[in-house]
Design brief:
About 30% of the residues lie in helices and about 25% in strands. The protein has seven helices and 17 strands.
């Protein structure tokens, strides 16, 4: 069983990117420690503040963001960072080779109930013709990512990562503080009988999406002629991990609740990294109209609809929307 850094060298990943990933994993180990201690460490509950998204921040959100921010800005290879919890781009070393976008703690609603939560990250090459704090640094389509991954804080701490050469899982050996490879070149089954969606929002979806979900729910007696199970963790990182492990389709479609916010998930630090992981595992990842990795970002905290997972089922879903 090889560790993460042996794996990265095996894949001929350049030393600066390996060093940056060491910083990310060191931060994740500290976050995992805080998560394990929960109420004992005094990190549960909400703050009185809202983030740039207008969401009430959890104490562990703030702690995780600060840990990642401090460690990443101290890394000489980091030109700039963008976080769900930060209003704007934060400049690092102007000579750094990489920029990194991250959701420090996805699934905040699960923190106080000991549910699934995780850290999602996305790494690009810095654009040397731009200032480190220029938001345009992050206006790169997902196809330009050099690495993407997430850390899932569950019964065990898992890292799922890709550098464009397959999707792989590493499990944290807490006794040694080392991530060991436990699954290599994961392949998502193209067909599935499992879907993940927040059904409470269905009255806000467009009719085509409602029709698709209705046909799944109809089971054997419906037009799909097979039974589907629904699973929903209320944390993208948990739902996508299940899809990567055993197939399925995850959806967070657009809705009409708020005309100023037609979608929920953020392109830069949720949709793009998950899309890269899914595609490198043989799945598909689309918005309702195009491949997620082809979307040209227009704003730092831009939101997009997300449909990803088993390739054939994603294609079936898109057929309803076309």
């Amino acid at each position: 069983m090889i560790n993460l850094f042996q794996h990265l060298r095996e894949q001929a990943v350049a030393a600066p990117l390996i060093e940056l990933l060491e910083v990310v994993t060191n931060a994740s180990k500290e976050i995992a420690f805080r998560v394990r201690h929960g109420a004992l460490a005094g990190v549960l509950g909400s703050t009185q503040d809202e983030n740039i998204q207008g969401e009430t921040q959890k104490q562990l959100d703030v702690i995780s963001n600060q840990l990642l921010k401090d460690l990443l800005l101290a890394c000489p290879h980091v030109c700039a960072i963008a976080s769900e919890e930060e209003d704007t781009v934060v400049a690092g070393n102007s000579a750094g080779e990489f920029i990194i976008a991250f959701d420090p703690l996805d699934g905040s609603s699960n923190i106080d109930i000991n549910g699934q939560i995780g850290t999602i990250f996305s790494i690009y090459r810095a654009q040397k013709n731009l200032a480190a704090n220029d938001e345009a640094q992050f206006r790169q389509p997902g196809t330009q990512q050099v690495c993407a991954g997430y850390v899932l804080y569950g019964p065990s701490t898992l890292l799922v990562i890709t550098t464009g050469k397959g999707t792989h899982t590493f499990t944290l050996d807490a006794t040694q503080g080392t991530f060991l490879r436990t699954a290599k070149d994961i392949q998502i089954p193209p067909d599935t009988k499992e879907f993940a969606i927040n059904m409470s929002n269905q009255r806000f979806w467009n009719q085509s999406m409602r029709n698709y979900i209705s046909d799944l729910v109809a089971g054997e007696s419906g037009p799909r002629a097979k039974n589907f199970n629904m699973r929903w963790n209320a944390a993208m990182v948990g739902d996508v991990h299940r899809v990567i492990c055993r197939g399925g389709i995850f959806m967070y479609p657009s809705d009409n609740r708020n005309p100023k916010q037609p979608a929920k998930l953020r392109l830069l630090y949720e949709a793009n990294p998950m899309a890269m992981l899914i595609e490198n595992a043989g799945g598909k990842a689309w918005s309702e109209s195009q491949r997620i990795l082809d979307i040209q970002p227009s704003a730092l905290h831009e939101r997009v609809a997300v449909i990803l997972g088993s390739a054939n089922e994603v294609e079936t879903c898109l057929g309803y929307l076309r």
